[in-house]
Amino acid sequence: MSTTSTPSPAADPDACGSDPHDHTGHDHGPTGSDIVTGLVRGFSILALVVPAFGVIVVLAALASTPSTPLVALLGLVLGGLQLASLVVTGLVVQRGDRRLSVHPALVTARSVLDEILRLAVVLWALVLWPAQPHGPIGLWIGVGCAVVWVALTTAQLVSSRRRIASPSDWSQEMVATLLLEKVSVGRTMVMRLLDVVGLVLFQIGATVLITAAPVMAVATIVLSIASGLSTLMLVRRAPSDRLHSAWAFAPLGIGLLTAALALLASLSV
């Protein structure tokens, strides 16, 4: 028989009073069920907001259209090629050392490859349509590329919503991490949306920049590497520190900077 007695509510300063259901003045934080509900709601909202943002971008780009829709098709091709490079690097990591996924060399190599692909597609477009104004060509190649990434992000959000709603090792690990590190679900979703905005701005801005002056591919390579390395720095931090780190805003900041440079380059042409 155990001789350990259970402390009474009056003797326990951490107890919630004599009424076990009265939690006045005590913050117990969210439960696992609350986290799951918040994640499902958050992923559902983002799965609607992200494609809506993509539609707004496309509609805004209609103000400056090229004479042929094939330019946008080239943008879709560019996005597909970048996606293929992402898949290939993922396979390399899976079959090799998984530590490569957080190695600066791999991030740098993929950034360089993506920008070389962008340069090649832009030069191809300029050869195909030499009489076309460069501005609409760069804009719509960038929009087409951004649409691919918006579609991929939306698919990931829908998949994440389904996975978090059903018991699995992945969902349990994610919920446990958010509980242990006391990470806000709402803030996590906001940062995810800002990442998407930064990505779209970078894809469009970098393409317009290279179209205005192909030598600016050097600048887009540097900006792409900076964005990738900032994400790498963020991944290496504890989950509770990521949302409060300045690195979390780097992709958005780089996207805004790239878009601003592209606007200046277009005005100077």
Brief digest:
The chain is mainly alpha-helical and 269 residues long. Helix content is 73%, strand content 0%. It has one domain.
Q: Explain this structure to me?
A:
- The protein has 269 residues and is mostly helical.
- The protein has one domain.
- Helices cover 73% and strands 0% of the residues.
- It is built from 9 helices and no strands.
- It starts with 31 loop residues before the first helix and ends with a helix.
- 30% of the residues are buried.
- The N terminus is likely disordered.
Give the key terms.
membrane, 9 helices, 73% helix, transmembrane, mainly alpha, 0% strand, disordered N terminus, single chain, 269 residues, globular
